[in-house]
Amino acid sequence: MPHPDSPVATVTRETHNVEALIIGSGLSGIGAAIKLRQAGVHDLVLIEKADDLGGTWRDNTYPGCACDVPSALYSYSFAPNPEWTRAFAGQPEIRAYLRNTAATYGIIPLIHFGTEATRAQWDPHDARWHVETTRDHYTARFLIAAAGPWHEPLLPDIPGLADFPGELFHSSRWRHDHELTGARVAVIGSGASAVQFVPAIQPRVGRLHLFQRTAQWVLPKPDHHVPRAERWLMRRIPGTQRALRNTEYAAMETLGIGFRHPALLRAVQKVGTLHLRATVKDLRLRRTLTPDYTLGCKRLLLSNTYYPALTRPNVTVHATAVKAVHGSRVIGADGSGADVDTIILGTGFHILDMPVAHRLFDADGASLHGHWKGSPDAYLGTTVSGFPNAFVLLGPHLGTGHSSAYTILEAQLDYVASAVRHFRSAGWASMNVRPEVQAAFNAEVQQALPSTVYNAGGCSSYYLDSNGRNSFSWPWSTGRMRRRLAQFDAEAYAVTSSTPQPSATDDVRST
After folding, report:
1. In the Cβ-directed half-sphere of 362, how many Cα atoms lie within 13 Å?
2. Pick from 119, 189, 366, 511: most CB atoms within 10 A?
3. Domain match, 393 and 319 both
4. What is the CATH number of the domain that holds 182?
5. Do residues 162 and 196 share a domain?
6. Any domain includes 320
7. DSSP string, 201-263
8. Are 364 and 411 contained in the same domain?
9. What would the mean pLDDT of 123-132 be, rounded to a whole number?
10. 258-290: per-residue pLDDT in tens?
11. Residue of 159, 155, 157 whose CA lies nearest to 326
12. Is the pLDDT of residue 340 over 50?
């Protein structure tokens, strides 16, 4: 222990002045880094609060974790993976794919791990973003928020939950060191994660109580092992993989027509009904598991094992929300209860109230969260008026119920890369989307949404924000999204001219 009179050690905080700073190293951040480098931006960094890349595929390690989009579509189009071993890849393979892609494109050395952004503010005097982190200070010409919407766990506000004496964890923070064999487990939530981990843990636990506030539409999952011969074909004849990707994309877009014309989804809904009838023979349980809204109103779920798991003797489905936790007893809103020693939260994420919005500030010190006032809004889901030179990836208005996140992301990255190339060639210092342009786009989206299943399907979903407005969904085809974002539209922005640039020897790195 140092002597009380000895000098106090100080931590030296380095300043990094870069052209582009990316927050997050999941699929959005990695993709952004690759596309920016291809656009000629080599002076860039990614800051990552964790000690490894991968984003949601790093965090979600629960049993049974896998993608619900076909593997051939769940990858960058410019970095196809012929080695998928399943038609719908599992979490370990997806994480390995992201790591391998980042390594192949030289992105890993650009990532500053263990560095969490705490505050990023636009400074109009030097036309740069000033970013404070848990380690160093950064300034950047461009800021790319790539933290993603499936990032921060949503913890329910249930009286008594914090005082539960047993083991309590969210599915995205899975406690692998906690032994579930023979345990009495309550699962709160029946969404995408629960549909995957419930069948995986059901054979091991002593009792499983599923508290289901809302029944979900669950369709059969056309998953299968990809034979070695098929993978060999994908490696040797790349056109085969492109054909598979194009075929799957066309099938998903055909399904997407129904999301815009809900009456067409009735045929697909019959598949869900038949799936339920074939796997759940008990009439009472079947009624409990039958949704009362149109398929597609909530996220579409795929599983061949979820319904069978719920029919097992050690499983009880409580068709109710949780009202309170009293000691070791979980109490449903309908009065039912269960004594348990483990609670697993399958309660989703902060989708529309993204935590990064609390950390981005305009020139006057107002946060992005404050600008949004509970209803996220961005021009083309990508740029926000008042936040110059900043881009939000997988932002508001771009979500779909049928397509791959990579499809959305790559459309955005085309727009970002085009914007940056135009910005540099024109010698701009800043670009700020005009508020009337952003407002007009948002009005266009809101005008189109009421006829879609997202709004007209008769349910309450995470597509709706705290004000009851759908701030998540894109009401048209992804083909239209790709066309709309294909080229940067400079006339939509107010710009300022560049000041003389520093010489190459000044371009960074220390204070």
Report:
1. 15
2. 189
3. no
4. 3.50.50.60
5. yes
6. yes
7. HTTT-SEEEEE-SS---EE-----B--HHHHHHHHH-HHHHHHHHHHHHHHHHHHHHHHHSGG
8. yes
9. 97
10. 999 999 998 899 999 999 999 999 999 999 999
11. 159
12. yes
Region 313-326 average pLDDT: 98
pLDDT confidence tier of residue 8, bands split at 50, 70 and 90: very low
For the chain, the residue count is 511
Q: Tell whether the torsion through CA atoms of 223, 228, 229 and 232 is positive or negative.
A: positive
Beta strand pairing call for 15-23 and 137-145? parallel
Cβ atoms of 385 and 434 within 8 Å: the answer is: yes
Q: State the CB neighbour count (10 A cutoff) for residue 337.
A: 18
- Calpha distance 46→146 (Å, rounded): 9
What average pLDDT does the structure give for the chain?
94
pLDDT digits (tens, 9 = 90+) for 34-90: 999 999 999 999 999 999 999 999 999 999 999 999 999 999 999 999 999 999 999
Considering the domain architecture, whether residues 89 and 40 belong to the same structural domain is answered as yes
Structure tokens, 272: 């869900």
- CA–CA–CA angle 354, 59, 301 (5° rounding): 75
CA 216, CA 465: separation in Å to the nearest integer?
Answer: 20
- Helix (H, G, I), strand (E, B), or coil: what is residue 378? coil
Q: Which tokens go with 346?
A: 């399958």
pLDDT for res 151: 83
- Of all residues in the chain, the percent with pLDDT exceeding 70 is 95
Give 23's contacts (C-beta < 8 A, 6+ positions apart): 29, 46, 47, 117, 120, 143, 144, 145, 146, 147, 356
393 is in which domain, residue-wise?
15-152+350-506
DSSP character string of 32-81: HHHHHHHTT--SEEEEESSSSS-THHHH---TT-B-SS-TTTSS-TTS--
Residues 315 and 400 in one domain: no
Q: Helices 405-426 and 27-38 meet at what angle, rounded to 10?
A: 40
pLDDT digits (tens, 9 = 90+) for 450-494: 999 999 999 999 999 999 999 999 999 999 999 999 999 999 999
Encoded tokens for 459: 């349910």
| Paired tokens of 35 | 């596309």
Model confidence band, residue 11 (pLDDT cutoffs 50, 70, 90): low
pLDDT at 111 over 90: yes
Q: Dihedral sign, CA of 473, 475, 478, 480?
A: negative
d(CA 183, CA 204): 8
User: Distance between CA 234 and CA 229 in Å, rounded?
Assistant: 9
Q: Are 59 and 82 in contact (CB under 8 A)?
A: no
Neighbours of 205 (CB within 10 A): 21
Average pLDDT for 345-354: 92
